[in-house]
Amino acid sequence: MSKSSRRHFIKKNILNGLFLTSAIPLLKADSILESKSSITELNFNTNDYNSIDWKQIREQFLFAKDYHYLNTGSLGPSPRIVIDTVCKAMERLEISTNHGRHEIDETHEKMANFLNVTPDEIAFTRNATEGLNIAARSLRLKKGDEIIISTHEHVGGASPWLALAKDFGAVVKLIDLDFSGKKNLQIIKDAISDKTKVVAFSHITCTTGMKLPAKEIVDLCRSKGIYSCIDGAQSLGMFPIDLRAINPDFYASSGHKWLFGPKGTGVLFINKSIIEHIDPVFAGAYTDSQFDLNTLTMEYRHSAQREEYGTRNTPITLGLGSAVDFINTIGIDNVAKRGRELVTHFRKGISNIPEIDILTPESELYSASMLTIRIKDKDNLKLNPTLNKEKKLRMRGIYENNINGLRISFAIFNSFDEVDLLVNSLKDVVKA
Ligand SMILES: Cc1ncc(COP(=O)(O)O)c(C=O)c1O
After folding, report:
1. What CATH number was assigned to the domain covering residues 101-327?
2. Is the pTM of this model over 0.85?
3. Mutation test of ligand 1: which of 159, 254, 401 has the most ligand atoms closer than 8 Å to its C-beta?
4. Which of 107, 134, 228, 310 is the most buried (most CB within 10 A)?
């Protein structure tokens, strides 16, 4: 087999694997062979927002042209360049029989720049859940210590703290959020007691796409000596994030949602101001700065990367770096603006359908590119698979907190035409 046909064979089978494991019917996918081999070859005309070539951006994604994927909040598809980076790195490292560990330092740097922090504050994980578990466990909370979380947390955002309650007798205090977004800081303030050790909250809730005032919550926590932990699964890649300005103790996110990174990638930010006060959850190769078994010496690295124990999946981590490059090529401000425009277009489209309630605040202060609706007097959870099957509209039913809603994610590959199709389909649903 020639080199290029072997590469074709590997890619083709990887892609087939991806699609076969999906719950969606098998969709005809494009090949990634037309992929540009370097990020610098991608040009979407981003100098002027109004001339950005969104169609060409859509071309970078493999899912079928007539499939209306509005579920980035659950899983972000990866563009060609990311898949290509992973495949090439996998092939190269298999040929050279190396793990390529040192190569991921470049990705630490890319991610740190993307979030405006330093590379030694960035650790790579498998997903947001893992990052949140590391954060929760590293605080060594004790019986009676209080943790504040909200009723809007994802199971992956809540479970790490519930596990601390089970294992160590920490107390989880549950708060209900204000759907308008306005009172959430005050609600958290009111819930704080002298036993509160952590406030853990979603930057963007998975339920209604509501944005929480992250900086204000973090400032409040710091003023009271309380740790702040942000679940950023829904915010990373959705809009610009300056973590230095927000300055939380922890921020954990997935790489495989709004950043469109490879599946099974995640990021954990640990503020350098606390790194010496917390112990890593796991220890092993790469977590130490000094190790001598004979003298039983082991010192942890003065870096968040002390959490990256053992052999890692270098190709997907490089793919995550490529995802950051991809977003940077478009510009994160442009990404955020596009999301808002699609949301606004959708809001306008359904404004004269009284049977539809919008559960997400409208203000940009309290929302971004994801929105949840509820069609009155309908089982919205049942509507979701129906719209998927009949109209090829893929959304996410929201069962959390008994919301009974439909969550719609507006991403860079979505178009105004798709939004119109969604609006018309909802009109039909309401009439039926
Ligand atoms: C707010 C929030 N937190 C955590 C998660 C879990 O993410 P992961 O599967 O990357 O751990 C999700 C997934 O949808 C989420 O929406």
Report:
1. 3.40.640.10
2. yes
3. 254
4. 107
- Tens of pLDDT, residue by residue over 102-142, are 999 999 999 999 999 999 999 999 999 999 999 999 999 99
If one residue of 154, 162, 259, 403 were mutated to test the ligand 1 pocket, choosing by the most ligand atoms within 8 A of its CB, it would be 154
DSSP tag of 150? E
Q: What are the pLDDT digits (tens) for 17-41?
A: 333 333 444 444 555 545 556 888 8
CA–centroid distance, residue 133 to ligand 1 (Å) = 12
Domain borders along the chain are: 101-327
For 155-190, the pLDDT digits (tens) are 999 999 999 999 999 999 999 999 999 999 999 999
Hey, is 198 helix, strand or coil?
Answer: strand
CB 270 within 8 A of CB 250: yes
* Residue 405 CB neighbour total at 10 angstroms: 27
Pocket of ligand 1 (CB under 6 A): 74, 127-129, 154, 156-157, 202, 206, 231, 233-234, 254, 266
Question: CA 113 to CA 106: how far, in whole Å?
Answer: 11
CA of 289 to the centre of ligand 1 (A): 32
